[in-house]
Prior knowledge:
This protein is α+β, with helices and mostly antiparallel strands. It is 27% helix and 26% strand.
Amino acid sequence: xxxxxxxTGLGLxxxxxxxxxxxxxxxxxxxxxxxxxxxxxxxxxxxxxxxAVRQGAYVNxxxxxxxxxxxxxxxxxxxxxxxxxxxxSSDGIAVPxxxxxxxxxxxxxxxxxxxxxxxxxxxxxxxxxxxxxAPSDDDALGWSIFYVALDxxxxxxxxxxxxxxxxxxxxxIVRGVDSFQVLYGLDTDQPADGVPNRYLNASAIRALDAxxxxxxxxxxxxxxxxxxxxxxxxxxxxxLALLLHGDGNTRSDTRAMQFDLFGPAYAGNGGQDxxxxxxxxxxxxxxxWQARRLVGLTVALRNRxx
Length: 306
């Protein structure tokens, strides 16, 4: 009888150990699967963003007609907002909305297309995959706009906003966004040498432009003067940072982490640049132990922006 009870107890103990190992193995598998998905999502998002930035200020010099939108007084080819969001159907970035996902930013890129008609010949496309025609003037350039909005479940997602077939639209590029941040490399040398001297967020560049005193006899002339002297024209590189999270609480550790999206050297500006430092201790408990991945990239502008 004693031997039977002993054997039964040992059997139950082994069963519990095996079940614990199985649960731990399943948890590790889910966590690694989430991490792999985050790696793929981050890589894909950065590829799309980098392609759009490199396309900025593109002009078709092989066209049989003289290209437009290369004048010094044309609108900047790259602009943005700091800690803002956008509406899917609004005109460009003219009407920013309050930010979501830890003060995520807005990045807008403009470029010339190819061919005639609404969508051109299809050889030049925006971030939504729609063709962009050759512009008739510098106000008819193509758009690729990136911002963060909430999906139906309340999770942040990075969206691409575009003008397709004459209508504004937006599609999600990657889901599970904790923060999307952008810094602009400003070339302050006279004359410009194409090398950034300092990195600023969109609010700082807009403040520099707001301090300019426009010259001109008419409102249109003053606007052209501001566009010619805009500090956006001196942006030569763009730094991108994206913090993503998985779907479930798959992490086994209980240590709240700190993510400095532009590194510890920039982390001191967290109070002035919202969202560049994300603390898991400030994230709701229900989402705190999700797998997270921080990805980033610095992209040089290929084309002259004015």
